[in-house]
Amino acid sequence: EIVMTQSPATLSVSPGERATFSCRASQSVSSNLAWYQHKPGQAPRLLIFGASTRAAGVPARFSGSGSGTEFTLTISSLQSEDFAVYYCQQYSEWRMYTFGQGTKLEIE
Amino acid sequence: QLQLQESGPGLVKPSETLSLTCSVSGDSISSGTHYWGWLRQPPGKGLEWFGSIYYSGVTYYNPSLESRVTISVDRSKNQLSLKLKSLTAADTAVFFCARHLPGVNPFDAWGPGTLVIVSS
C-alpha cells in the first residue's frame, strides 16, 4: 500500500496570503495525484488531478506541482471561502487508492 | 446538475450489517461513462476507499476490506448500495459515495456523506 503523508496537519494563514500544502508518497505515483477540498457537511471537491491540472471550475489561484513522490498544492491569495481541509490522493495503484490524512487550513 | 446523496441508518449495533444507499441525480449510472464507489472517513482519520462498481455490476474492492464488503447497483433506481458486515466500533465513520472515470482516475464528484455510528 502506498502511504500518503501530508504536512503540516494545520496551516494558519491570513486572507490574501499564500498557502502551501505538501504531500509525500511512500513510493512513486508518477503524476497520478489529486487534491481535494473538503468543508464540513459538504461533498469533497476535486481541485487538481494529474498533479497539476485544475478541475473544471476551479479558480486559477489553485495550482499543483510535483511528480514521483513529492507534491505541492498552492493557493496564491487566500479567499475566505478557501478555509477548509485539503487532502491528497494517489490513484496510481489499482485497487489501492489511498489518501493523506489532510491539512486543515485555518484563518490566522 | 450532478448530485450524489448517501442515506442510511445512522446508528447500528456491533456485529450487525450496515446497509447504505447512494442516490444519483443529474447523471445515469447506466450511461457507462463512470465507475461509482464508496469511501469512508473515521473520526480524526483519513479517507479510505472501499471499492467501486460499473453499471454492468463489475466490481473491484480494496483488498483489506473485501471480505466484509458488498457493493451493488440498482440501475432502475439509479442507485448504488454498500453492505458492510460484522461491524465493530472501528467502523464508525462518515461514509461517502463518489464517481470516477474508468482506469486510474480521481473521484470527480462526491456526495456530502452520511455519519454511521456503531454502538450498542
Can you describe this structure?
Helix content of chain A is 0%, strand content 49%. Chain A contains no helices and 11 strands. Chain A has strands spanning 4-7, 10-13, 19-25, 33-38, 45-49, 53-54, 62-67, 70-75, 85-90, 98-99, 103-107. In chain A, the strands form 2 sheets. In chain A, strands 2, 4, 5, 6, 9, 10 and 11 form a 7-stranded mixed β-sheet that branches. Chain A is globular and about 35 Å long. Chain B is mainly β. Chain B has strands spanning 3-7, 11-12, 18-25, 35-41, 48-53, 59-61, 69-74, 79-84, 93-100, 107-110, 114-118. The chains are: A mainly beta (108), B mainly beta (120). The interface between A and B is medium-sized, with 26 and 24 residues.
Question: Sheet bearing the most strands of chain A, described?
Answer: 7 strands, mixed
From the alpha carbons, calculate the radius of gyration of chain A and give it in angstroms: 13 Å
- Structural shape of chain B: globular
Number of helical stretches of at least 4 residues of chain B: 0
Helix-strand makeup class of chain B = mainly beta
Per the principal axes of the C-alpha atoms, what is the gross shape of chain A? globular
Instruction: Kindly report the average pLDDT value of chain B.
Output: 95
Radius of gyration of chain B: 13 Å
Report the count of strand segments of chain B. 11
Q: How much is the average pLDDT of chain A?
A: 96
Order of helices and strands of chain A: EEEEEEEEEEE
